[in-house]
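Entry, Tuesday afternoon. Goal for today is a structural model of the target with pyridoxal-5'-phosphate bound, before we commit to ordering more compound. Inputs were pasted exactly as handed over by J.K., no edits. I checked the ligand SMILES twice against the vendor sheet because last time a stereocentre got dropped in transcription.
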Amino acid sequence: MTLHDSSFEQQHSAMGQIALLGGAPAVRTPFPCWPVFDQREVEATRAIAASGIWDASHPVVAELENQFAQFHQSSYGLAVTNGSQSLEIILRGMGIGPGDEVIVPAFTFVISATAVLMVRATPIIVDICPDTFTLDPAAVKAAITPRTKAIMPVHIAGVTGTIDEIVQMATEHQLHVIEDCAHAHGSQRQGKSAGSFGVASSFSFQGGKVITAGEGGMITTSDQALYQNCLQQRDGENLQSELIGSNYRMTAFQAAVVQVQFERFQQQRAQKLANIARLDAGLGQIEGIKPQLRHPEEEAPGYLYMFYYDAQAFNGLPRYLFVKALEAEGIPCGEAGYPPLYKTPLFQNRNFGPGGQVMTHDWGGQPFPDYQAMQLPHVERVVRDVVILPHANLLATAQQIEGVVTAITKIQEQARRWPQWGNTITFSAATFSRKVLSKLRPHGSTS
Ligand SMILES: Cc1ncc(COP(=O)(O)O)c(C=O)c1O
């Protein structure tokens, strides 16, 4: 029996052959590319250039700060260089430093933890919930010590997950909650906005984010004293300032582009939420596929769409080949983005000192946690088994989204009918990348 034996194919492909093996792709129209932009971004940039005021003194920066803070139910917004330094500014603004501990989730971008190290405090890495992929309250509770000063939930893929439990625990232990909202623009839970649960929050406008100016960040808070501290740090060359700071300002060009993107995002929000609901309903029906859990009253039009892939339900087809097969069906996707935080070389080797010097003890004189010995089961499983769809997919038509469900159903059906399917697809995968790459639309085209 060969791969292209037509009688075999007819007999074994009720939904048609998978695209990776030469069948027609489930989705034939390309998904939107990111960033989405049009003449408005071009015009906003031109207007700043023409104004002659290119720095943060242009009124657009303060205007954006107010609009963004208001939308996220906070009193103050502070536009900054990016969503990494925003975390550092918040931590320093709270007086967190040597000898202090900040609890962070093991499943996040490494910056959530390096921001803590940058202020010379110690990140305490804990496991996540296996269903929401956000901080596990039990793990947080177990990690609290007299040195703990703050908890940093990361709303992964925009999902606020266990935030209520985390806030409650922080209140009981008199700890600060700093929300890393780099994925959570526009997320709401029971009408309450991401960024308004903790004492301060950090957003990112980096190139891949749902609102972008290439780079940029925003701090939101309703704590006036903290806002003032953060402001002084951002404008560190202010000779009246009593706090050490630097220059962390956003340019007027960035603010103008973010403002347009923010406006468009508010229009895109409903479409994204509708497509997430379609995916949850459709994928939830497929054996072996389990979407990230969202609270029933959670609106998270966020950064990624994530789901577990159980290879057992696909006749042992490994995840990386599932991803290739899905891509061949016309659907941009990937394997779960981050390694467990403690498995990154930085943490494995504890190169936290000047020039990457290995540190055995933190700046408070305590031994660093043994990151090499860490093995947290939930994050390990997510990293091993989860598949992601980028957020631009959520701007697709309902028909394209239905195509995602059809494609996965087709892959499963084929996988189950063909005992050696896994081996066959392995050979085809090598030629796949070239084929798909050549089909990609040029980056930057609008849609
Ligand atoms: C969870 C998380 N936190 C922080 C950041 C840092 O943001 P930025 O790239 O704007 O510095 C990112 C960026 O990807 C992120 O995903």
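The domain at 39-260 is CATH 3.40.640.10 (Aspartate Aminotransferase; domain 2).
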